[in-house]
Amino acid sequence: MKISQEILTRKGARKAQDIPAAVIKFLNAGLIETANLTEWLAADQLAILKTVLKEMGQPKWYKTFETAVNSQKKISANNNVKVIGQLFGENLKNKKDFLPLKTHTSDVVRSWACWAIATQQKTTKQLLTAMKPFAGDTHFGVREVVIFATKDRLAADLDTAISVLATWTTSKDENVRRYAAETLRPTGVWTKKIPALHDQPKLGLPIIEPLKADPSLYVQNAVANWLNDASKSQPKWVIQLCKKWEKASDDKATQYIIKRGMRTINK
Q1: What's the structural domain count of the chain?
Q2: pLDDT of residue 188
């Protein structure tokens, strides 16, 4: 099916009711990616699932998935991604079986793949190795889902997680570098806080220190948000660190990170 350039290059509607019918049709058929959060929330994951299962030759699985989604205490787009992804993780046994999900056009389907593959990793190192492609995904939605799929497990094995993620700070991919800082934010957004980093943010230095002058604004914002999180529980530590960075680097990126990272302190 040919899809117009107008649809492929759209910015995305601000309100769900303003999403064109053609866009909804293509989204729910899994033929295009969501363009923004509004579309991501509006996509009918069960409709996409029905098509994907048919493509995979497993339409009989649909009822089980549908029941699990509708049985949730709180139904939301995030929760649906998790439930569907985890069910794929339970039902798919071979690595090759995940390929249709991992490489799917739809970012929603790739998000399911993220959760599915995460459930099958036994160690922190295995988990991070398997999640790296999702951390570097071209779509914003997948890059957020991988944080939801990993943060709790990384927090439970913090030393190993920090050790591995510290090596990611030199990646050529800004998305991977951003994940290294964003996923272990002491508080974060819509995620549980990490008590150890909340009390001792210095533990996170191997991750944020190498990124203090990162050229990517995406990464800069992640590091700044990390500092802002830490400033709410350990403001003196953040002030001291920022003073140290200010002396060590006159880079504009560092100046931006410091200013944004201390926004709560300087209110």
Answers
A1: 1
A2: 75
Spatial distance between the Cα atoms of 152 and 189, rounded to a whole number of angstroms:
13
Nearest to 51 by CA among 68, 27, 70: 27
| CATH number of the domain bearing residue 242 | 1.25.40.290
Please check whether residue 70 lies inside any domain of the structure: no
**pLDDT per residue as tens digits for the range 57-71:** 999 999 999 999 999
Q: Work out the number of other CB atoms within 10 angstroms of the CB of residue 138.
A: 10
Helices (H), the chain: 5-8, 21-28, 37-42, 45-55, 62-70, 77-91, 99-102, 107-119, 124-135, 140-156, 158-168, 174-182, 195-199, 205-208, 217-231, 235-248, 252-261
Q: Is residue 88 part of a domain?
A: no
pTM comes to: 0.93
